[in-house]
Amino acid sequence: MGHAAPLRRDPLRFLCGLRQRGPVTKIYIGPRPVHVVNSPDQVRELLTVQARSFDKGAMFDALRVPLGDGLITAVGERHLCHRRLVQPAFHHERIARYARTMAERSLARSADWAPGTTRDLVPDIHRLTLDVLLRTLFADPHEPGLDAAVKDWLTVKYHSMRLALSPLHAWAERVPLLPGWRPPDAGPLRRLVDVQLRIIANYRADGRDRGDLLSMLLLAGGPEGALTDAEVTDELITMFLAGTGTVSASLAWALHEISRRPDVQRRIHDELDTVLAGRPPAFEDLPALVHTRQVLTEVLRLHPPSWLLMRRAVRPVTLGGVRLDPGDEVFFSPYALHRDPHLYEDPEVFDPDRWPADAAAKAPRHTFLPFGAGSRLCIGEDYAWTELTLAVAAFTAGRRLEPAGTAPVRALVGTVLRPDRLPLTARPRPS
Ligand code: HEM
């Protein structure tokens, strides 16, 4: 069992506790050794200086079969080439176009939340992030069966990701500890791929740029050629995989923190009143929403959805004085780093003002890692900041959020770190 039991029982506390054992420490999950990196300097080595000596590791291998081989799982030349081809879909001017959808859908989703009523916002937020992703991926789907295929696939996604990314589940095949273990069903992926191939065929037929992500993936090309239809479907599925749970967890944590802090909420209201003066939020407003950005930065520090990341050595390499052989697995935890008292004063305190207003956008890499770093840095980072800021503005501008009930909101530590529920009451804003 090694450290599997404490890692399963309370993974966050276990990972934070490891920092006392030095910059790189070895733990065992079942019979397998895993090296845990606890210092920002060694994380920098891992993600940038020595990045070529590592791939993503066993857990991502496990995702490739049920979820396809898009950017998140791709390695080596395939990763470099696809990264170059996918990048234009996330350029600034493109995100400005997606922002219209983000703002419009966030306002629509929050509009029917009447003052005086209480809701668990978690399901609303899930629906919102999926809706935004679908509409920014496919501005023009007109394809019957897309919604059903996505819903069907999401259930397999959750199962596969839990299996692959949760530290203990990843070893389920080798360490048969889990009685409920079963392999993911390949049917939903196949059906989603079929629907997407039909959409791609329609797009290719007229070659129009519809302003969405799919158009960019189809238009992308370079010396290395263009993405094939099969590669495009892998990338689309990767976006579902990477761009829904992470954003909904962050938005839920943000509304949770804001609702519990009248002073923070008041400053957000003041900022929105000044910048928006009653009109809907838009992409052009983002630079002026300074306090909202500081709040979101602090939310991502305290509650990074990707709480545990991993790599695997592909050649002999030394990290923090520890020699790693090919195949050796490495973990590092943005959560543990973000709560390290050597890196942040009073790390458990929620304090948006720890981020200077003009530097919030450039928080230091390697001590602030919600989006990773180096060549595998989240390609959707700007997309996520945009969606989160516009959604926070939409949900807070016209109402005051208040926590409902006395039961504490708990962190669920799964493939992402998310709140189990978010019961909030909307109150009218004093005029
Ligand atoms: C708050 C929201 C998000 C968070 C916290 C987040 C976090 C991350 C992290 C930590 C990584 C690096 C993983 C590693 O190094 O192993 C990553 C990679 C990635 N993310 Fe995000 N992400 C978010 C939103 C998004 C969105 C909205 C999209 C797309 C629409 C997206 C697409 C991707 C992709 C494709 C990769 C793989 C990039 C590569 O390896 O080249 N993410 N994300």
From TrEMBL:
Superkingdom of origin organism: Bacteria
Family membership: Belongs to the cytochrome P450 family.
SUPFAM superfamilies: Cytochrome P450 (SSF48264)
Keywords: Heme, Iron, Metal-binding, Monooxygenase, Oxidoreductase
Organism for this UniProt entry: Streptomyces lunalinharesii
InterPro entries listed in its UniProt record: Cyt_P450 (IPR001128), Cyt_P450_CS (IPR017972), Cyt_P450_E_grp-I (IPR002401), Cyt_P450_sf (IPR036396), Cytochrome_P450_Monoox (IPR050196)
Protein name, entry field: Cytochrome P450
